[in-house]
Amino acid sequence: MATETAERKPTAKRIVIEPVTRVEGHGKVTILLDEQERVRQARLHIVEFRGFERYIRGRPYWEAPVLVQRLCGICPVSHHLAAAKAMDQVVGVDTLPPTAEKMRRLMHYGQMLQSHALHFFHLVSPDLLFGFDADPAIRNIVGVARKFPDLAVQGVMLRKYGQEIIKATAGKKIHGTGAIPGGINKNLSIAERDGFLKDLDQILAWSRGALKIARDYTMEHLKDLADFGSFESNHLSLIRADGAMDLYHGGLRAVGARGGKIFDHVDYRNYLDYIAEEVKPWSYMKFPFIKSLGPEKGWYRVGPLARLNTADFIDTPEAEAARKEFMALTKGKPNNVTMAYHWARMIELLHAAEKIRDLLHDADLQGTELRARGERRPVGIGLIEAPRGTLFHHYEVDENDQIARCNLIVSTTNNNTPMNRAVEKVAHDYLEGVQITEGLLNRIEVAIRAYDPCLSCATHAMGRMPLEVEIVGADGAVRARGGKGLYV
Amino acid sequence: MSESFTLTIDGVEVTAQPGQSILQAADAAGVYIPRLCAHPELEAFGACRVCTVKVNGRPQAACTTPATKGMIVENDTPELNEHRRSLIEMLFVEGNHFCMFCERSGNCELQALAYRLGIDAPRHDYQYPARTLDGSHPEVFIDRNRCILCGRCVRASRDVDGKHVFDFVGRGKGKRIWIDAESRLADTPLEGEDKAVEVCPVGAILRKGAAYAAPIGRRLYDHDPIGADIEAKRVGAPAAKGGKS
Ligand code: FES
Ligand code: NI
Questions:
Q1: Distance between CA atoms of A81 and A109, rounded to whole angstroms?
Q2: Assigned architecture for domain B5-76
Q3: CB-based contact A299:A1 (threshold 8 Å)
Q4: Of A61, A70, A253, A255, whose Cβ has the fewest other Cβ atoms within 10 Å?
Q5: Tens-place pLDDT, residues B47-104
Q6: Is A460 contained in some domain?
Q7: Cβ(A342)–Cβ(A117) under 8 Å?
Q8: What pLDDT, in 10s, does the model give residues A352-410?
Q9: How far apart are CA B194 and CA B219, in angstroms?
Q10: At what angle do helices A416-430 and A438-449 cross, to 10 degrees?
Q11: Could you tell me where the DSSP H helices lie in A364-460?
Q12: Which residue stretches of chain B are H helix?
């Protein structure tokens, strides 16, 4: 693989994947060739818009959990909760009342359920059901709805259930106000709870079904998938004190590609001692890395695969059984297969459904102590395991209660280097000559999609992002261009 | 004490007491006249003109015009509501009102009026003025982006709190509410419990620590439109009507 120093050599050639339209931001893949017309490097360019950090300056801190939802129309709840966790710190609250924490968790599992379901059923299932090389005109959700109508309905219903949970906890499906500094503004009424309990068995059954599809597909195609867009990497996530997967809260754990712990149970308020962000001249999006390993070796993956790799266990029985089977494949060592993200994601889908069940049976959700208060602090740092991976929110608040500084590292930015590596691997393996073939395009799309990037989050534009590919020669001239109909 | 008398509003006979404005008489009778700067505990001011009605065919501010015997008042007419809509649209574009994250959303009189009058999107261009915030006070936060110059805080501070914390400065487009201090709210005698803080109809003067306390669905105007409380007082009133007039 090419190093960052080599790419600055003027002799490099480049292949580019660019957006069909730039209206909603900008996703582009450039494949750089060397003098021998071999792939030297691939770059995923996303125009990361950081205007938000400037916009929020001066706003009162309590507004942040609501305001930040404007960052992304796809994962507003993750931003809502990460900002609320940061603002808990600002109001001096380290432990929320049980009702508040559990309501927020319910909101988060609802978001996890709807986000994972949307991604798997709408975006991924066509690739799995029809194959990567199927005509994009069929390889989409409409094609799935036609050939597998039950599946398409399940996807819609799982998503709807998650959204209803978000509404019951946050007040609205997007731009909710539920999480406030130090707590939550409502509990769950008995009527709301019973409404969710009614459909719960069906939700669990569908989640099991989705997991089975992802698992069976991976096992059946193991030989082809193992190497597809794959590479070794570190893995990072939050982890509960006892080593359990915890999507809402925990300390930071990073493991190496072969399983050695790099750091563990790090209080995330000290994340700056462990994580840094590298800026590269060709990308607007930063490249986070583990400081002790440096930018060359310290980049890491986040999201479902990373979380499976960092967790010692999952605290819900069905997801735990699935985790064991998943980890057995790599004899308990981290799984570095890009396409294993889908299986891992569906284990989390089932885990989220199990967690929702447990919470719905917890009387704390009907508690009335909703908010704690404490001594004001100047800094708030909130991390959460968003559906796409670890999300960092960091604020400095001045003595007038106004936000003085804000830094966000969104999940998709954490996966920046891995997505570049995945594309590079695919380009290496599937580029023939200097031609952008349908097969190459489809595979680039499939590899990026495994990471479920929220380009909307990273760029703060709305909607899914069209993607274009460009091949650039060693002389800097564009040699080929393509990408119509590609979406991630 | 002098005698009560009657007038008609939109063809309905309404009883009024001497000294009442048209707005007060209408309120007492359960007839809602839209308003922004008027407040039941404050002296009428006549600044926003949202309460404009036609008295014997001539436009008048209902909050400052005394009710008189036999008056013929038009209120809920397409023409007057159109006039109100355009006033409110102007207020929206002249400030920076982002309801989607404003903590007053659902409790805001400006937003509620826009809903009641059926305003979807303003027809004018947003002006995005540069406005300042003041967070210096331990209990109160000012966001001038959302100030509509109704002057309620000016009157409440002067007449109820007896403090004169707020006043108008500048004129025309540059007119704004200013405070009786060099530049910081913290340097004024304002207190969190002051009437001046409570009466702000929008999200300009905010009590710290109260944001988003009411969940969506339990805010003032989540179910009934603004004015529904007044209309409920009407004898034989039908159930509160929907958000659009
Ligand atoms: S309410 Fe009468 S002029 Fe404002
Ligand atoms: Ni997003």
A1: 12
A2: Roll (3.10)
A3: no
A4: A70
A5: 999 999 999 999 999 999 999 999 999 999 999 999 999 999 999 999 999 898 999 9
A6: yes
A7: no
A8: 999 999 999 999 999 999 999 999 999 999 999 999 999 999 999 999 999 999 999 99
A9: 22
A10: 150
A11: 411-414, 416-430, 438-449, 455-459
A12: 22-29, 78-94, 109-116, 152-155, 195-198, 228-231
**How many other C-beta atoms lie within 10 A of the C-beta of residue A296?**
11
ipTM of the complex model: 0.90
CATH architecture of B98-207: 2-Layer Sandwich (3.30)
**Side chain identity, residue A256:** G
CA distance A357 to chain B (A): 24
Judged by a CB distance cut-off of 8 A, whether residue B223 touches chain A is no
- Residue A441 to residue A135: CA distance in whole angstroms: 12
Two tokens, residue A455: 């380009």
Of B143, B206, B212, the CB nearest to A185: B212
Task: Name the residue ranges covered by the structural domains of chain B.
Answer: 5-76, 98-207
> In which element (H, E) is residue A125 found?
helix A125-130
Listed residue (A259, A257, A159, A151) closest to A214, CA to CA:
A151
pLDDT at A181: 98
pLDDT for residue A114: 95
Q: Any long-range contacts for A437-441 (C-beta under 8 Å, 24+ apart)?
A: A438/A133, A439/A132, A439/A133, A440/A469, A441/A17, A441/A469, A441/A482, A441/A483, A441/A486
Which of A52, A55, A66 has the highest number of chain B CBs within 10 A, making it the mutation to test binding with B? Answer: A66
**Does residue B181 surpass a pLDDT of 70?**
no
Quick one: pLDDT at residue A46? Answer: 73
**C-beta of residue A454 within 8 angstroms of C-beta of residue A412:** yes
pLDDT of residue A15: 41
In this complex, the residue of B100, B135, B136 whose CB is nearest that of residue A60 is B135
Ligand 1 pocket mutation, candidates B24, B48, B80, criterion most atoms within 8 A of CB: B48
> Does the beta-carbon distance from A400 to B136 stay under 8 Å?
yes
Domain of A455, in residue numbers: 2-49+418-486
Low-confidence residues in chain A, pLDDT < 50 = 1-25, 460-463
Report the pLDDT value the prediction gives residue B179, as an integer from 0 to 100: 76
